[in-house]
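Record 1 of the preview.
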Amino acid sequence: MRLVLATRNRKKATEIVRVLGDAQVEVLTLDAFPDCPEVEEDGETFEDNARKKALTVAAHTGLPALADDSGLEVMALAGEPGVRSARYAGEGADDAANLQLLMDRLGENSHRAARFVCVLVWADGAGGSRSFFGTVSGEITHHAKGNNGFGYDPVFQPTGFDRTFAEMTADEKDRLSHRGEALRAFAAWYKNMTPGQ
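->
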């Protein structure tokens, strides 16, 4: 089966393909569909945004699509950056700018609990969709550590560990991460799915 990942984020696509591994699916990205319209992520929830992207891409390509919307929720910041994680510092902001704004807003606050959230939505190309969820709890460190991963990984330390996501290998992060959890749920469902389901 062919499946289109509804993303142009190469690091995210690499992570998704790596976790899906042996799911017996040929994975394409939006690079194969340069005329696919951009989807405005204006939903109030991660699921809203992921569903909108999946349905749009499936309708445009005629293939099943898998879309991800994910982000960081910091409790002391009332859940920010939340659904605006990728554009926290403004439209077009890069990872460094988003991370700097987060650290500036959190400052020396001792309450640093946070969680990463991921919602994946699979759209079948005929208007149907299914959602898969993943979360991982942790805390925001006082300083960025590590060079792996992307986004807020250098300051997110999962509960029970003394390293940030950016200090972990890709395999270690995949086993713990919000996206890994959601992808494993999708892969398990996909492997058991029968035609027409």
